[in-house]
Amino acid sequence: MKRIVNFSSFNVFSIEKEVWDIEYHNHNFYELIVIASGKGTHYLNGITFTYKKGDAFLLRPSDAHTFSIKNKTRFIYIKFTEHHIWESLQADKKSELNKVVRLMMEDSSFVYDSAITNKTDRKHLLQLAVVLLYEFSNKRIYSKETSADLFSTIITILIRNIMNSGGRERVSKGINQAERILYYINVNAMDAEKMKLDHLAKEFMLSRNYISIYIKKQTGFSIQQHVMHHKIKAAEKLLNQSSYNINEIADRLGFNDASHFNKIFRTYKNMSPSAFRKK
């Protein structure tokens, strides 16, 4: 598989294509791709789904992807290193967002969809990406400072949408402990070791018993139920959008075997994985 290497810590550019001519590849950097116009299909880590104007895809270095274009598409690329994102975040945001940004940037093979779910945020992020592209491309006075501020704002909007998967507006401007824990579960649901209560308790400096009771009280669901919810969602995507067979999906999601996967999936979806795929 091809690997694209970039030696600059930050780069912003736009390309417009009618036919995608870049083979399946990964990178040595982080990449935010904003769809400025057009429609097509995005292949990411073995999963297939459609894209449209306003979508934004956050790719980590290990993510492999390619596109198939249906209607002529304009892509805005924002490429950056881990060091650059910490340099760009405003000092007053670092203490609040430090943990979430680190979680967002961890490698997770099960984050596929557009990072932007809120309709208003989709519009604003695209506008911000266009302005960032202009400032970065036209080296005017204070362009560097303006680009840093725009990049910081874009990342903050991404965090809000990734944490707020249903597009709900937050009442609080801060990120409470329950939200941090739930986001950590979202990112690491497929990692059995990280989902152990002992590991979670150590990560968030809480006792093993308290973190379990706390999440159940705050959300109405146990930690294990949250983990299983993410696994079932991932299973739905793999059944719908990949060519993996049932055994392969069970293995990728950390189930003991296909029989165990089948039993759990039936509990949540009232049908077998095979029936879900056919439907």
Question: Features of this protein?
Answer:
single chain, 279 residues, alpha+beta, Jelly Rolls, Arc Repressor Mutant, subunit A, 2 domains, 5-stranded antiparallel sheet, two-stranded parallel sheet, 11 helices, globular
Secondary-structure blueprint:
Elements: E1 2-4, E2 10-17, E3 25-27, E4 30-44, E5 47-51, E6 56-59, E7 65-80, H1 82-88, H2 91-105, H3 119-137, H4 143-163, H5 177-188, H6 197-203, H7 208-219, H8 223-241, H9 246-252, H10 258-269, H11 273-278
Parallel strand pairs: 1-3
Antiparallel strand pairs: 2-7, 4-5, 4-6, 4-7
Entry summary:
This protein is an alpha+beta fold and about 280 residues long. It folds into two domains: about 1-165, Jelly Rolls (Sandwich); about 180-279, Arc Repressor Mutant, subunit A. It contains eleven helices and seven strands.
The number of domains: 2
- Hey, roughly how much beta strand do the residues contain? 15-25%
The CATH architecture of the largest domain: Sandwich
Distance, first to last CA: 33 Å
Alpha carbon gyration radius? 20 Å
CATH superfamily of the largest domain: Regulatory protein AraC
The helix fraction, in percent, is 40-55%
